[in-house]
């Protein structure tokens, strides 16, 4: 379907159009503000059928900012019908088709069975958990020993000491936070721990 007038969705996920773009498409000779004021005499109400806003555009000759309106699709259809001309008919049929497609898309998103509803809920929970895990992982700090154990690196003591020195230098050079961490082993006492992001970047750089 060819786009005759741009249709977007508002914060309530409702399809809406620009009053000025509709005015331009309908090829109205009357000035926009006068025309729109006249259209409102057909019973349209602000905040219910439309919302006003100013257009942020520079005017070469100065003057007040231009006024535009966000129209719900029902209002846009009625205005198109009121024009009683070919352009109005085109716009109205176009809005009807847009509305039909919008409703079909919305219908596809709504679970039709109990099983689909459970699947949709499970997917939503999984997405939230994935996001939380990613956030928590990014904030985790690992000592060399913990990283070695968690990611099954199988480093020996000598390798761990070497990695620890390298990670300390890497974090300082790249402004990563280094946190002291108490251990239960008297041989080590307090050791450094490094954020997971730093570990990932460190090994990525080593692989490159």
Distance between the termini: 48 Å
Q: What's the domain count? A: 2
The major β-sheet equals: 4 strands, antiparallel
- What value does the average pLDDT take? 83
Order the strands across the largest sheet as they lie in space: 1-2-4-3
- The coarse overall form would be elongated
Number of H- or I-type helical stretches? 8
Q: Indicate the percent of residues in helices.
A: 40-55%
Low-confidence stretches: none
Total E-strand runs:
7
Q: What is the string of SSEs from the N terminus onward?
A: EEHHEEHHHEHHEEH
Structural class: alpha+beta
Tags for this entry?
single chain, 208 residues, alpha+beta, 2 domains, 4-stranded antiparallel beta sheet, 7 strands, 54% helix, 15% strand, elongated
Summarize the structure.
This protein has 208 residues and is α+β, with helices and mostly antiparallel strands.
What does this structure look like?
With 208 residues, this protein is an alpha+beta fold. It has helices at residues 19-25, 32-39, 73-83, 86-109, 114-139, 144-150, 157-173, 196-207; strands at 8-9, 15-18, 50-55, 66-72, 141-143, 179-182, 190-195. The strands form two sheets. Strands 1-2-4-3 form a four-stranded antiparallel beta sheet. Strands 5-7-6 form a three-stranded antiparallel beta sheet. Helix 3 packs antiparallel against helix 4 (86-109).
């Amino acid at each position: 379907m060819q786009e005759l007038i741009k249709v977007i969705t508002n914060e309530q996920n409702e399809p809406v159009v620009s009053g000025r773009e509709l005015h331009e498409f309908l090829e109205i000779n009357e000035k926009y503000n006068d025309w729109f004021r006249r259209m409102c005499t057909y019973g349209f109400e602000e905040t219910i059928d439309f919302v006003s806003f100013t257009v942020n555009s520079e005017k070469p000759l100065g003057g007040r900012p231009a006024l535009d309106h966000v129209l719900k699709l029902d209002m846009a259809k009625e205005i198109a019908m009121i024009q009683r001309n070919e352009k109005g008919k085109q716009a109205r049929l176009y809005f009807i088709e847009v509305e039909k497609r919008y409703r079909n898309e919305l219908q596809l998103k709504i679970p039709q069975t109990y099983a689909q509803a459970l699947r949709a809920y499970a997917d939503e929970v999984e997405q939230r958990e994935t996001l939380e895990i990613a956030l928590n992982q990014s904030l985790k700090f690992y000592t060399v020993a913990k990283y070695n154990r968690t990611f099954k690196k199988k480093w020996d003591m000598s390798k761990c000491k070497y990695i620890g020195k390298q990670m300390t230098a890497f974090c300082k050079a790249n402004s990563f936070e280094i946190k002291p961490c108490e251990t239960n082993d008297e041989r080590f006492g307090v050791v450094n721990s490094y954020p997971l992001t730093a570990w990932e970047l460190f090994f990525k750089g080593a692989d490159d």
